[in-house]
Amino acid sequence: xxxxxxxxxxxxxxxxxxxxxxxxxxxxxxxxxxxxxxxxxxxxxxxxxxxxxxxxxxxxxxxxxxxxxxxxxxxxxxxxxxxxxxxxxxxxxxxxxxxxxxxxxxxxxxxxxxxxxxxxxxxxxxxxxxxxxxxxxxxxxxxxxxxxxxxxxxxxxxxxxxxxxxxxxxxxxxxxxxxxxxxxxxxxxxxxxxxxxxxxxxxxxxxxxxxxxxxxxxxxxxxxxxxxxxxxxxxxxxxxxxxxxxxxxxxxxxxxxxxxxxxxxxxxxxxxxxxxxxxxxxxxxxxxxxxxxxxxxxxxxxxxxxxxxxxxxxxxxxxxxxxxxxxxxxxxxxxxxxxxxxxxxxxxxxxxxxxxx
Length: 357
Hints:
This protein is an alpha+beta fold. Helices cover 34% and strands 29% of the residues. Strands 1, 6, 7, 8 and 10 form a five-stranded antiparallel beta sheet that branches. Strands 2, 3, 4, 5 and 9 form a five-stranded antiparallel beta sheet that branches. A hairpin with a 4-residue loop joins β6 (91-101) and β7 (106-109). Mean pLDDT is 80; it is low at 1-10 and 160-170.
């Protein structure tokens, strides 16, 4: 039976499942480990939540072994929990926990890892009942200055069903389209303005004794505040040099770089946190929401006992919900640690009193 001549041109339908692996890591620090030993079998310390692939996760640390049996009575246990499971489908994730070897300066695997697990809508958790023996931990290089560090690696698959209509059985790609490099051209434009090139430069800013050249239209397109400042009824509409108060030159320069390229300039690792704080304030002042979120995300990674008060005040002042949650999580962890320490000390005092009696 011969096929119809029309079969070569009639559209055909096709479908496919596209699987994309999403991976992320989160570092957990247990400070004052000796203070939480003796918490009790099945009792745990829960770390603040972290995000991988749009899902929120948390880790529970059991210093005296997880619940259930005497199987892990002499061990430290650890488990991963999904905080926002999908109500209709399970999330299948592969994960592992690695301890930082303080002597080697790298994270290492301990014992067989859990492998692939299905996290259901019941908020179940999986981990290692026998993560490391408590006696081995006390005598190892994993514990330094009463502190240990654990890295949790999570990988899971996102599957998407797609359909398409194809006229031809196969198509050959003759042209490869490169990714956009507009940001490079705009960076060159800013660099030329800063280097004294005139071009279309039509405004300059005086910031802390330094002068920065820029382009009104580009600033106005990126920021509603700059739009009102440079094209509104204010005197700066016709001014060729605008004075900026209450901002350091390096911060203004970094903000200009973001406005032109939608990215942050390279910074020394030691100044990243301080610069992120200043840039968050600048982003809020000039209505640059993406820059504000980038800074907020960076600051969330540096919230600890020494910075939490400053970070919380910054979050309250500039309406940073995520940063505020990170601060409150740190505060709750510190409070729980203090309460646990107090209970252990009271227990020791009572036992000492009984032994003397």
